[in-house]
């Protein structure tokens, strides 16, 4: 039978829709290939690890051992007097969503002997820049105390551990640390401060690739399109944009035992409200100290699942935890100390959203201690279609927060940035004054050209805009109903 014009058009429409199916599915995709299918099981595992560590500490108190703190990360390695000869044991100590971050485990030890950063295209061997751009797994350590003043962004390749234990290591200057489309990175015991925008230049990101970078935002640590990331025992302060920002579908992240001071917009999680891949973002915040001079975003979340457990929030000027675009926020066993301002007592903030829209968002407080009039506004009355309900698994008492966060930040570092550090002076910063048009991070909706960047071996593919897809479907539909199915 000879096909009619109508049947030909239907066949053409079917073929086109089939070819566009993957793009349409990607546009509405609510998961990432590396997100955990059951975030509540991750929450339970964190609590189990914490319970075991607390029990062991209590038992050690009766025996006089005295080393254990109850912090499951620290107790995993610090009590070994020979830890410096077993550095890579650290990779087995993470908890939460970033637990699987390998860093440079099983790789060679790379010793940084040169604190300079003179050439970002051809860095000298022995510099931090030369180490982090290599393709093989590396465990990076430092030969002595160092202040590394970066000329431009430090672009870190996959399977790297930057381990500052045993030295006083600080990173400042242009950039600063960029994790873009990479995986398995651990950053441990590093001070990051006074990071400023830089760029509009060529920067090497691997032994075989040099690329043009637009102007960076001046984040302390920028995470874009990356997974299996663990930031532990870092001290961050006074950068131009965020202290830690994670955007563009990043997931499987743990930020733990870190110390934040002197900053406005502390942490941004999620690129913008319309960026659907961030629905797969999963981040654990554990045993961190939020100290003097902080204003907001501890963190500020979009989409995703965020477990905030046993942190110490000692200061904020506007709010502590904020969000938009229906994130799940599970707050357990934290201490929130409100500021004196009667208008800033609320821990939470739904950003630019009416109550009618956020009332169903899944925000839970469980076992938190509220001090000086602090209050957390919960929401959500059931399980969403995307995420399991924020759980009420029993958290450890927030009364233990002081002990669990006792060593937050770099070991031996200053408390509350009281002026003993070189980054104590200057205005509190954080408002984004620029955007990285080279695809580096940032997280503002103004960024329009982050697609298709290739750095460190990663890519992001463009999906056709919804308007284009619907327009094509509409045109084809019209051809099937016009002139008895004949093509116009």
From TrEMBL:
Binds 1 Ca(2+) ion. Required for its activity. The chain crosses the membrane at residues 450-477. One of its GO terms (molecular function) is pectate lyase activity. Pathway: Glycan metabolism; pectin degradation; 2-dehydro-3-deoxy-D-gluconate from pectin: step 2/5. Its EC number is 4.2.2.2. Residues 415-443 are annotated as: Disordered. Residues 1-26 form the signal peptide. Its cofactor is Ca(2+). It catalyses: Eliminative cleavage of (1->4)-alpha-D-galacturonan to give oligosaccharides with 4-deoxy-alpha-D-galact-4-enuronosyl groups at their non-reducing ends. It comes from the Eukaryota. Residues 145-342 form the Pectate lyase domain. Keywords: Calcium, Lyase, Membrane, Metal-binding, Signal, Transmembrane, Transmembrane helix. Residues 426-436 have a biased composition (Polar residues). The keyword Thylakoid does not apply. Belongs to the polysaccharide lyase 1 family. This is Pectate lyase. The lineage of its organism: Eukaryota, Viridiplantae, Streptophyta, Embryophyta, Tracheophyta.
């Amino acid at each position: 039978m000879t096909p009619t014009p109508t049947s030909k058009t239907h066949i053409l429409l079917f073929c086109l829709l089939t070819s566009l199916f993957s793009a349409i599915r990607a546009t509405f995709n609510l998961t990432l290939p590396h997100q955990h299918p059951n975030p509540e099981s991750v929450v339970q595992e964190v609590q189990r690890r914490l319970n075991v560590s607390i029990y062991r500490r209590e038992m050690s108190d009766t025996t006089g051992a005295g080393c254990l703190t109850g912090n499951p990360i620290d107790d995993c390695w610090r009590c070994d007097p020979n830890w410096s000869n077993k550095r890579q044991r650290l990779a087995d100590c993470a908890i939460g969503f970033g637990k699987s971050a390998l860093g440079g485990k099983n790789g060679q030890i790379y010793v940084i002997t040169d604190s300079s950063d003179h050439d970002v295209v051809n860095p000298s061997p022995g510099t931090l820049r030369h180490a982090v751009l290599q393709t093989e797994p590396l465990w990076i350590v430092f030969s002595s105390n160092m202040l590394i003043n970066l000329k431009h962004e430090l672009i870190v390749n996959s399977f790297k551990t930057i381990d500052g234990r045993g030295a006083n290591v600080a990173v400042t200057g242009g950039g600063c640390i960029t994790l873009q489309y990479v995986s398995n990175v651990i950053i441990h015991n590093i001070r990051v401060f006074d990071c400023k925008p830089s760029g509009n230049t060529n920067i090497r990101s691997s032994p075989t690739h040099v690329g043009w970078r637009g102007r960076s935002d001046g984040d302390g640590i920028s995470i874009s399109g990356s997974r299996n990331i663990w930031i532990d025992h870092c001290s961050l302060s006074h950068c131009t944009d965020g202290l830690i920002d994670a955007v563009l579908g990043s997931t499987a992240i743990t930020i733990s035992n870190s110390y934040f001071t002197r900053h406005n917009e502390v942490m941004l999680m999620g690129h913008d409200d319309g960026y659907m891949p961030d629905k797969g973002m999963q981040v654990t915040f554990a045993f961190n100290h939020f100290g003097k001079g902080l204003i907001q975003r501890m963190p500020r979340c979009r989409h995703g699942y965020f477990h905030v457990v046993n942190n110490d929030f000692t200061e904020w000027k506007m709010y502590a935890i904020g969000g938009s675009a229906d994130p799940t926020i599970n707050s357990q066993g934290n201490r929130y100390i409100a500021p004196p301002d009667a208008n800033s007592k609320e821990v939470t903030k739904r950003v630019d959203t009416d109550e009618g829209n956020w009332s169903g968002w899944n925000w839970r407080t469980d076992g938190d201690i509220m001090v000086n009039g602090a209050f957390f506004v919960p929401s959500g009355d059931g399980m969403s279609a995307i995420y399991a309900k924020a759980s009420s698994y029993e958290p450890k008492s927030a009364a233990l927060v002081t002990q669990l966060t006792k060593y937050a930040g770099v070991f031996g570092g200053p408390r509350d940035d009281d002026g003993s550090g070189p980054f104590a002076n200057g205005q509190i910063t954080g408002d984004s004054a620029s955007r990285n048009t080279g695809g580096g991070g940032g997280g503002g909706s103004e960024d329009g050209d982050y697609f298709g960047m290739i750095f460190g071996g990663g890519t992001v593919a463009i999906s056709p805009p919804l308007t284009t897809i619907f327009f094509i479907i509409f045109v084809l539909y019209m051809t099937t109903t016009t002139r008895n199915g004949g093509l116009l």
